[in-house]
Amino acid sequence: MDMHTVVLGTSGTTAQDVIAVARGAARIELSEEALTAVATSRAFIDELAAKPDPVYGVSTGFGALAVRHISPELRVQLQRNIVRSHAAGMGPRVEREVVRALMFLRLKTLASGHTGVRPLVVETMAALLNAGITPVVHEYGSLGCSGDLAPLSHCALALMGEGDAEGPDGVVRPAAELLAVHGIEPVELREKEGLALLNGTDGMLGMLVMACADLARLFTSADITAALSLEALLGTDKVLAPELHAIRPHPGQAAAAANMAKVLAGSEFTGHHQDDAPRVQDAYSIRCAPQVAGAGRDTLDHARLVADRELAAAVDNPVVLPDGRVESNGNFHGAPVAYVLDFLAIAAADLGSIAERRTDRLLDKNRSHGLPAFLAGDPGVDSGLMIAQYTQAALVSELKRLAAPASVDSIPSSAMQEDHVSMGWSAARKLRTAVDNLTRIIAVELYAATRAIEMREGLTPAPATRAVLDAVRGAGVQGPGGDRFLAPDLESAYAFVRGGKLVAAVESVTGELA
């Protein structure tokens, strides 16, 4: 278990901290600076609440109902009602790590001192996370504008001791019971607090941060499997020379080519065994691997830049400014995050597409330069990896559908008050599926390439390749031979890639890859 402690101040947080809280057991501490800032901003809200002038979120209704002034005796009910009414999600449960990221990022904004909540609210949300209490959040309910409203509302509901939540033991129980077990008092929300708990892009941002971490590993994994396929196909590594990539100076391309060159260092396969079918050039899926993976890496760098900016932001409406003004704004619009979520889905789809083309080439005896059809033990009697490629192709096709951008859509809501929305939550949900699909696609290429290399007799693979072969076989992924039940092997290869073991095996020889 990760016992890392994350200290929240007023200046945001880091991607590493988000992942430590979302995927690990990192504990959260609130700095004195944060608690002081929260108390200061709350004093401004209390002052405004005592005045007769209407202030959005403090003494008015919400959205299209903001025209109504709410009298003081109804304001606790107003804040409770917004949470209950907005907790209108439907569909499957959202994954625990997503909910924890969402809650932590909302807490990050509350701790900034720009939302006007009481310190009690901030402290109680931190207590829920530290206790491992995870509210039940549903798939549908966010348009990515005015915040991830329904998902955040389900989290706020648990803070009030209502709705359902999952305990640290994984059992779903009424939130009130879980709070009582852990000695946490439910919060009675006051002016501005219900709105402040709902009005952020935290769900889509949390999913972006985790997708960036996953894709960083997958881009490195794809460089490795591309190198293994090049090796298995007796390709040339001359196209990886750094001087070739220096004249088209995209940093991701250079990094991908350097990774591939490190994997292939010392191989007897590359560029010297083409007498049976001389090749001046390898096919695009081999020769252009660094260009495609590199473009994806540069896309990832841009997405990380956007994520870092959001991690330093305080997204709420209205916000409390340092001089005490409480101002309405549009910072809750999810467009910046939605765009890069969609962009990453495009990069993932193209990386999956080129990996599948390399796999298909390994299986086609007319293009594989001496390998048996479908890498079968006895082609005709055995089908080999024929249907593994079908599965990979189905995953690629799904990736292409997931690459259709969500952020170009907009459905007006709230009686046309919220007449343009980002659909960033939807972009994030489909990216999570895309990342998982890409992991499986790379696993199939790994499975095919390692089998093909082992079927080449009389040649010595690169030391890094040897390390991969040893590690993947040790992980239960079987090598060449007759047909067998293939699904378990593919699932083991998927777990090998997903768990970072492919990268670790190579780096044990090459040192750290980009």
From TrEMBL:
Tell me where it resides. Cytoplasm
Please name the pathway: Amino-acid degradation; L-histidine degradation into L-glutamate; N-formimidoyl-L-glutamate from L-histidine: step 1/3
Query: Mainly resides where?
Result: cytoplasm
Biological process (GO) annotations held by this record are: cinnamic acid biosynthetic process; L-histidine catabolic process; protein homotetramerization
Q: What are the GO cellular component annotations?
A: cytoplasm
Catalytic activity, as annotated: L-histidine = trans-urocanate + NH4(+)
Q: Which GO terms describe its molecular function?
A: histidine ammonia-lyase activity; phenylalanine ammonia-lyase activity
**InterPro entries this protein is in?**
Aromatic_Lyase, Fumarase/histidase_N, HutH, L-Aspartase-like, Phe/His_NH3-lyase_AS
Q: Give the matching SUPFAM superfamilies.
A: L-aspartase-like
Modification type 2,3-didehydroalanine (Ser): residues = 146
Q: Which UniProt keywords apply?
A: Cytoplasm, Histidine metabolism, Lyase
Modification after translation is described as: Contains an active site 4-methylidene-imidazol-5-one (MIO), which is formed autocatalytically by cyclization and dehydration of residues Cys-Ser-Gly.
User: What class does this enzyme belong to in the EC scheme?
Assistant: lyase
Assigned EC number: 4.3.1.3
Sorted alphabetically, which Pfam families does this protein's record hold?
Lyase_aromatic (PF00221)
Where can the 5-imidazolinone (Ala-Gly) cross-link be found? Answer: 145-147
Q: Does the keyword Cytoplasm apply?
A: yes
Family, according to the entry, reads as follows: Belongs to the PAL/histidase family.
By its UniProt entry, which PANTHER family does this protein fall under? HISTIDINE AMMONIA-LYASE
Record-given protein name: Histidine ammonia-lyase
